[in-house]
Write a structure and sequence with these properties.
The complex is a heterodimer of chains A (744) and B (229). With 744 residues, chain A is α+β, with helices and mostly antiparallel strands. Helices cover 34% and strands 24% of the residues of chain A. In chain A, a hairpin with a 2-residue loop joins strand 27 and strand 28. In chain B, strand 1, helix 1 and strand 2 form a beta-alpha-beta unit. The longest helix of chain B has 12 residues. The chains are: A alpha+beta (744), B alpha/beta (229).
Amino acid sequence: MSRNPVSLPGDPPVDPEQARAHGLAPDEFAAIQKLLGRIPTFTELGVFSVMWSEHCSYKSSRKHLRTLPSRSSLVVQGPGENAGAINVGDGWVAVFKIESHNHPSFVEPYQGAATGVGGILRDIFTMGARPVASMDSLKFGSFDHPRTRYLLGGVVAGIGGYGNCVGVPTVAGELMFDPSYNGNILVNAFCLGLARSGELLSARASGVGNPVLYVGSATGRDGIHGASLLASAEFDAESESKRPTVQVGDPFTEKLLIEACLEAAKTGAIVAIQDMGAAGLTSSSSEMAARGGVGIELDLDKVPLREPSLTPYEILLSESQERMLIVARRGREDELKAVFDKWDLHAVVIGEIIEEPRWRAKWRGDVVADIPVAALADQAPVYDRPIRPAAPPALCPARVENPEPAAALKALLENPNVASRRWVFRQYDSIVQGNTVTGPGISDAAVLRLKHSRRGLALKVDSNPRACALDPYLGTIATAVEAARNVACTGARPVGITNCLNYGNPERPEIMWQFAEGVRGLRDAALALNAPVVSGNVSFYNETEGRAILPTPTIAIVGVIGDVSRQVPSFFREPGDTILMLRTNPPRLAASEYAAMFGASDRTLARIDPEREAALIDALVAAAEQGLIRSAHDVSEGGLAVAIAEACFNPGRLLGAEVDLAAQGLTSTAELFGEGASTIVISVSTRDVEQVIQLFSDRSLDCRLIGTVTAAARLRLLPFIDEDVRELFVRYEQGLPGRLATND
Amino acid sequence: MKWGVVRFPGSLDDNDTLWALNEVMGQEAAILWHKDTSLKGAQCVVLPGGFSYGDYLRCGAIARFSPIMESVARFAADGGLVIGTCNGFQVLCEAHLLPGVLTRNRSLSFICERVHVRVENAATPFTCAMRQGEVLRLPIKHGEGLYVAPESELRQMEERGQVILRYVDADGRESDDANPNGSMHSIAGVANERFNVFGLMPHPEHAVEAMLGGEDGLKIFRSIVESVR
């Protein structure tokens, strides 16, 4: 049955101009006509425009993403499903992914961020895993930009509003302010779920005659063209008018949907399931059919609607939230309906799996779209876009200041890029579900326990856009090994990576070069760390009126701790303990927070050897597993001085540190405040010092004794700094709320 | 002893309460579904935290009309022990099983942190395993925990000893800084006049294991066990 679909009364004419308005290039419109052997209907044009959008098709990135390593002995599911999965032991599988919701959050910060959280949760529980932890990577413009506070407040409230209500703890994250995000903020949401081994669900449709169930919220007009016009185009002066393309979240329904879907999974009546995310009903139905090599026929009259006047075009393209599509085993749909009925959710059969590999939609007796499944999935365009290296931008003031070290330290501690994030994470429920051993603000990574097991998981998300701007390849390696180091500082061994690659317009060769170099860096880091990239997301077109964001690969790493009772915090614990410094490379001022504040002439990143970084991480984990490490803190924004100060901020009672920098030859500004891979500050009991130094030197790693933890709460980094830790702590805690409270 | 933990749509800490009671304390706790009316022989009913029905209206305003709440109200009227934490406290106030009401935090934002509360009346079934004036460290996580009641009623509640928990600092001193949400009289938990219904904003079920940050919540559950024995 391949009769041509009908055009509907009131459909605008379909021509090259209409195609362009839908974001399709002339050659793409020509390719569509060739694939169909005719001109698409208006409905079909809408369907192609979302499925061939950058957001859904990965047409600019796919060639590069194929090079990423995605296998290890622990990988249960690599790229290709809704999220990746890693075996974390004791019968548990961790399912995780990170995804962007940048443009919606810039246009409407509360709902944009909230639905970003909702969307990534669905990617996890559609795999049959219960979401157990969220993280967020947030980038805002300059703190002094007039929109920044509004956007920050809205995004944080949106993440909390959704995450708190749905009952998934937000356990870690990162936050940065930089002028390059003035016109295009970044909101990258991560979620991790847990499933029992062998109980994962798939999004691969099969079984001719199997019914297709629509479950969850009814379909409305919200979010139409979110994927194509909002996510896959850069911003301009008109962007405010795109607010209606932002979806509206309903976390209560999402909570019901989580419980109902996980309960439905237990019936064994689900063949395939996928959430209706970007491009809604269209993408979920066509992608499930494509994965299974089958066709699908949808009866749009059966779709639950919020108002009866929606057209097929709108029904197919709606991005209304909290909806899932399920392929059920024929004859068992009533078992599924009973579960959704219990949770007061819609569950309606709206179609079936057909043998002919076509994606077909019917409405009021007519076929309104009839497209080969492959045309929407595998045959979407793939581009090998030209690349051209670009000179690094000037990141810091031209005029170099030379503040006194103590003054620089104080300024750094209250700098919004360094200061305590308590104002943010206090607004998030970080303990619900009862697994949070280490929540936000305590260690370099969050630590969760696995119930009925001694094991734990550590999670962290990182990015380092300034380093990536100076060198997109080395900067991405630095980002990946930093995330791995943060995870390892808790005593966890990194086992898997997910990433969200945020860049400008890929049609510009300089941007495409940043992207290609970033993927190459991620690949080399993942190989060295033996941590495969199991899922990810690409966000292009992050620019406004031709000004792109700094290249921002956001990298989240999951690690496993064999015995969670041995997890390591980042703060000093016992007066008298010895402070050691682990280091692979001397730090530099290039791309540092210090340079952004006070200027620096250094604009070159240190060479970084991913193998050596992996060796450091391995040694650190080995030492932690033997119970030799009291605390471990990675040196990042603000350098060694800030790292030691932060390590004194023990939440139980403030401690001090005495470090003789002069005796160690650590006297330059770069030594005090520089960044770059990598330096770790650890504290160990005096009786273990020799053993720890031996452990690292056996592996040819630099491990130096630099000082002592003191009961007196003074930070003494001699001969430069001798400050009251309490005063430093107040500055650190007040940095963010203090700046938010002032009206300057 | 037997416990019933009510599950409303949108309940979030129901499983954590089950974990605390069954896995940590070895009690016999079961879920009570909101559409059911049987309390399954529970000797104490727990209304857990969460966002029942999304809390899109006032917190707890819809949940009070659930079928299970009729049974809970009858159970309470017969002297049965009922404890509501966070959203459960809000539901109990909406259901008029407890006096007062919980409104938006003074900061207008959600707050998740560990706080200190002082036991103001140790002669109740919910506090009998503790000392008068004992300071507990418990987590809170709510957007609407500012306790409000008419001043005249508060005075009577204070006189009768219905104020069970008050926010204080680590040394047990009451102060504005130690009051995380701006509650009147720094109230963190109250009981009814018969002292068989107790509501509190802190989450005792999230303070039952040292590894997760403390065990003070156990003292409340142990008090209930002792009082039933």
